């Protein structure tokens, strides 16, 4: 099984199409990107928020994953928040959700209903994280500790959506997270995103492919079994302070 794990898109629809073209995908009769070698795209979550065209990203990923069965998806924390918004929960429209909600509210009532139903089905039908033994990989939005692989429950859900959080926050409100990847010793690749980095970060057999497309850097995919990355530049404005630096 050859897969292309695609990092956090955050509504950057044009960059997503550019990445598919660079990886050799072609548009099928059904209107979705398909690779001539039968590669499977896997979306690592955070499809929406902050970027310019979250609605188009939802439509495309729904068509690829649900309608055509040509791709796979795991949700991110922004996906979880949008899902709770669509459920009718009182979630704060901030940290990017407000941009998706504005797009959504600009639609006709018929189109609103369709997008809401599509996204909720996409979310509900997808696993919290994806085990891909054929590719010797696990895909989880914010990563996963080795001891949690194969398990479910609230502890696992919190980890894969938000990372190894301590419960504390920095002055700017960001949660303090432990660097779980440094302690990973498994044989499978853990492919994740969630925390923007300027370059794909490989530690042990983990790789963070959220290269901050929505913050003006690039959109990245990790290809397996080749173990290589492919990126396209972002069309968005560059925001330096959004990128996490690690003590290597």
TrEMBL record:
Q: Which InterPro entries does the entry link to?
A: Ap4A_hydrolase, Calcineurin-like_PHP, Metallo-depent_PP-like, MPP_PrpE-like, Ser/Thr-sp_prot-phosphatase
Superkingdom to which the source organism belongs: Bacteria
Q: Where is the Calcineurin-like phosphoesterase domain?
A: 1-197
Molecular function (Gene Ontology), one example: phosphatase activity
Q: Which Pfam families match?
A: Metallophos
What are its GO cellular component terms? cytoplasm
Record's protein name: Protein phosphatase
What is the scientific name of the source organism? Sediminibacillus albus
């Amino acid at each position: 099984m050859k897969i292309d794990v695609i990092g956090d898109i955050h509504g950057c629809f044009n960059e997503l199409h550019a990445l598919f073209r660079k990886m050799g995908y072609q548009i099928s009769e059904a209107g979705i990107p398909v690779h001539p070698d039968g590669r499977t795209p896997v979306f690592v979550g955070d499809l929406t928020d902050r970027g310019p065209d979250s609605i188009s990203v939802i439509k495309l990923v729904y068509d690829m994953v649900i309608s055509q069965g040509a791709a796979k998806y795991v949700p991110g924390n922004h996906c979880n928040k949008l899902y709770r918004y669509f459920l009718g929960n009182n979630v704060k429209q901030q940290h990017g959700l407000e941009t998706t909600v504005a797009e959504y509210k600009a639609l006709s009532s018929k189109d609103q209903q369709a997008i809401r139903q599509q996204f909720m089905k996409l979310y509900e039908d997808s696993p919290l994280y994806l085990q891909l033994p054929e590719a010797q990989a696990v895909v989880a939005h914010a990563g996963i500790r080795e001891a949690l692989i194969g398990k479910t429950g609230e502890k696992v859900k919190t980890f894969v959506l938000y990372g190894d959080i301590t419960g504390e926050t920095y002055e700017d409100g960001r949660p303090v997270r432990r660097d779980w990847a440094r302690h990973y010793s498994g044989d499978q690749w853990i492919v994740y995103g969630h925390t923007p980095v300027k370059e794909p970060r490989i530690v042990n057999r983990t790789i963070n492919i959220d290269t901050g497309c929505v913050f003006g850097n690039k959109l990245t995919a990790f290809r397996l079994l080749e173990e290589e990355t492919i990126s396209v530049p972002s069309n968005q404005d560059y925001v330096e302070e959004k990128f996490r630096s690690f003590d290597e």
